[in-house]
């Protein structure tokens, strides 16, 4: 809300105190977002990647072994799961 209000009222932030406050809020939001993404990877992405990797290996895809540890694949799966 502080950021929205500031954007609506002023184009440039001249107050160093206000700038520090906004940066502090944005830093906290960034930390929460990072924690949320890491939690999604751990709870959703990794188990899905392991399950898909195992299934593909059983079907004869030998390169699928790497899928279980591919962080990009885990992130993709977590995002796709969140968009259901």
Which blocks of ≥5 consecutive residues have pLDDT under 50? none
Number of helices: 3
The oligomeric state is single chain
Element-by-element helix/strand order: HHH
Query: How would a crystallographer describe the biggest sheet?
Result: none
Query: What overall geometry do the principal axes of the alpha carbons give?
Result: rod-shaped
User: What structural class do helix, strand and pairing data support?
Assistant: mainly alpha
Number of domains: 1
The percent of residues in helical segments reads: over 70%
Distance between the termini: 29 Å
Number of strands: 0
Beta-strand residue percentage: under 5%
The value of Rg in angstroms is: 20 Å
Question: Topology, please?
Answer:
Blueprint (H helix, E strand, L loop, with lengths): L1 H8 L6 H43 L12 H12 L2
Helix pairs in contact: 2-3
Report on this structure.
- The protein is mainly alpha-helical and 84 residues long.
- It has one domain.
- The chain contains three helices and no strands.
- The radius of gyration is 20 Å and the shape is rod-shaped.
- The two termini are 29 Å apart.
Question: How do you describe this structure in short?
Answer:
The protein has 84 residues and is mainly alpha-helical. It is built from three helices and no strands.
């Amino acid at each position: 809300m502080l950021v929205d209000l500031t954007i609506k009222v002023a184009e440039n932030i001249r107050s160093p105190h206000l700038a520090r406050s906004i940066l502090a809020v944005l830093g906290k939001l960034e930390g929460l977002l990072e924690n949320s993404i890491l939690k999604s990877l751990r709870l959703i992405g990794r188990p899905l990647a392991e399950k898909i990797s195992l299934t593909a290996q059983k079907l004869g895809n030998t390169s699928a072994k790497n899928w279980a540890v591919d962080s990009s694949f885990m992130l993709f799966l977590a995002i796709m799961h969140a968009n259901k």
